[in-house]
Specification:
Number of helices: 7
Radius of gyration: 19 Å
Helix content: over 70%
Shape: elongated
Distance between the termini: 20 Å
Length: 228
Amino acid sequence: MKQNYSTRITGWLFIAGALMLSGGWLLLPVHIGTFFKPDDFAAVHAHLHWWIWLYRVYIFGFLVTVMAFVALAAVLTDSEARVVAWPGITVAVVGLAVGCLASAFYYHHGAWGALQTAGQPLEKLREHVEALRLDTEYITCLVRFGRVFLGLGLVVLAAGLIKWRILPAAVGTGAVILGLAAMVLTMAFPDNLEFYAPVFHLNSLWLLVTGLVILRSGLRPGTQSGDH
């Protein structure tokens, strides 16, 4: 297994992305569902600064994970595995970016709504929620696309990891299972986005394990361009 400064950076990025995504989400004092509810804003307002900073950690977790995938692609530059890994990573990165933008919607309207509706009667809260309904419908579409794209990207990336034995087979197999689960759950149950929750946490676990494996053992370089 090839282990050097580049692989160590890649491993730490995977670990950081996993901890920021799952940790930021789990520690949030208020979790907003698919659609805002009138009592969400008072709950967010009660923990406003804590909620804002933890949501920022969660959102930046998407970006750090993007950095981890790009770092992995860079490490595989001289490997023939790139012909499969790079397309998979590209699609996964698009999925993460779309998911990040969708999360930013909930972050903005959660914090802004908490400040705008503080002390208002229930009827005003309901009006505010109803005004967000149409925009939220559009954002749920982005959420679905982000999850499906990430799932597809993981499956394609895993094909490259497994074929060229870049990482242990268990890592690639885990990516295939998670990718397929993300696509199936999202497309089969489009109106039940909460079904994806276990996949989200398992994805974070996969990122963590992948990072630890890379730190401990490095990466197999795979068949190099020009090798026979």
